[in-house]
Amino acid sequence: MSDQVASSTNHDVVALLSRIAAALERMAPPAPVQADFNAADAFVWRAEGRVLAPAQRVNRVEMALLRGIDLVRDLLIENTERFANGLPANNALLWGARGMGKSSLVKAAQAEINRARSPSAALKLVEIHREDIESLPTLMGLLRDSPFRFVVFCDDLSFDGQDTSYKSLKAALEGGIEGRPDNVLFYATSNRRHLLPRDMMENERSTAINPSEAVEEKVSLSDRFGLWLGFHRCSQDEYLAMVFGYCDHFGLDADREQVRASALEWATTRGSRSGRTAWQFIQDLAGRMGKQLDKQLSA
C-alpha cells in the first residue's frame, strides 16, 4: 500500500513540476528572430516579439528639400559616412526646435550615403521606439555579429518622472561590459538638450544627499553622445525658401507673391515657422490647386 502511495505521490509531483515548467516557458520572453538584413535597408525593432521588421518604404524627405540646417546637415553626413566606411564616428544627439527636420535629416543621410554604395555594403537604419529603449542591449546583441553596419535611431527621446530606462541607454552606448558594437551607431532626436526636463533635474538636486552627484548622473547621459547638433527656429527667409523649394519640387505653379503672402499668413496663424509648418502649408496649397503629392514625402 505504501508503494502505491509513494508512486501516486511521485506522479503528482512530476505532473506539478511539468505544469510549473510549462508556465515558466510561457512567461519567458521569446527567443529573438534572426532578421534577413538583405530584405531591406531599414527595419523597425519590435521589442515585444524581439523581431526586426523590414520597412518596405521609408517615410523620408529628399536631402535637397531640407533647408536652413546646412551646418548640422554636413556634420551629420560626414559622421555617418565615416561610420559607413568603417572609420571611427560618434553617437549623435539632434536636439532643438520642433519641426525643423531632425528625424528627416537622419533618414535622408542614410539614403544619401547608400546612393553610392552597393547593396552588399548598404548602411542599415533600425528604428527603436522610445518605450522600448530598455531592450536596446538585446537589439545591439542581435546586430553585433552581422556583416552590415547599422544606425539605430530613436525619435523624440526623453525621460520623465521616475523613468529609469535611461540607465539602460547609458550602459548600451558606452558603459556596459561589452560596450557598443563596432558596427552600430546610435542617433536620437529630442526637444531637450539633456534629454531630461529641468524640473526633474531640480527635484534630483533638492532631494539627494549629494545633489550635485545626483544631477551629474542624469546629465551624463547626454555625454554619451559625442556629436550634439542643435536645431533652431528658422528665419522668415529660410521658411519661405522651404516653401518655394517644395513648390518647385512638386511643380506647383502658382503666383509667387500670392504663395508668399499665404505662406506667411499660414505660419502666423500657427505661431511658428519651421519645416513642418512649410510642409503643412504645401499640403494645403496642393489640395486647393487639385494637385497630387508624393505620399512618401513628409516633414
Short description:
The chain is α/β, with parallel strands linked by helices and 299 residues long. It has three domains: 1-30; 42-231, Rossmann fold (3-Layer(aba) Sandwich), CATH 3.40.50; 236-289.
Characterise the protein shown here.
The chain is an alpha/beta fold and 299 residues long. It folds into 3 domains: 30 residues; 190 residues, 3-Layer(aba) Sandwich (Rossmann fold), CATH 3.40.50.300; 54 residues. Helix content is 47%, strand content 12%. A 7-stranded mixed β-sheet has the order 2-1-4-5-6-3-7. Strand 4, helix 4 and strand 5 form a beta-alpha-beta unit. Helix 2 crosses helix 3. The protein is elongated and about 95 Å long.
Number of domains: 3
**CATH hierarchy, class of the largest domain:** Alpha Beta
Rg, rounded, reads 25 Å
Question: How would you spell out the order of helices and strands?
Answer: HEEHEHEHEHEHHEHHH
Coarse structural class: alpha/beta
Mean pLDDT: 83
Annotation field: number of helices:
10
Uncertain segments are none
Q: State the shape.
A: elongated
DSSP, total strands = 7
- First and last CA, distance: 80 Å
Fraction of residues in helices?
A: 40-55%
At the third CATH level, what is the topology name of the largest domain?
A: Rossmann fold
Q: In what range is the share of β-strand residues?
A: 5-15%
- Strand arrangement in the largest pleated sheet: 2-1-4-5-6-3-7
CATH architecture of the largest domain: 3-Layer(aba) Sandwich
**CATH homology-level superfamily of the largest domain:** P-loop containing nucleotide triphosphate hydrolases
Sheet with the most strands, sense and barrel status:
7 strands, mixed
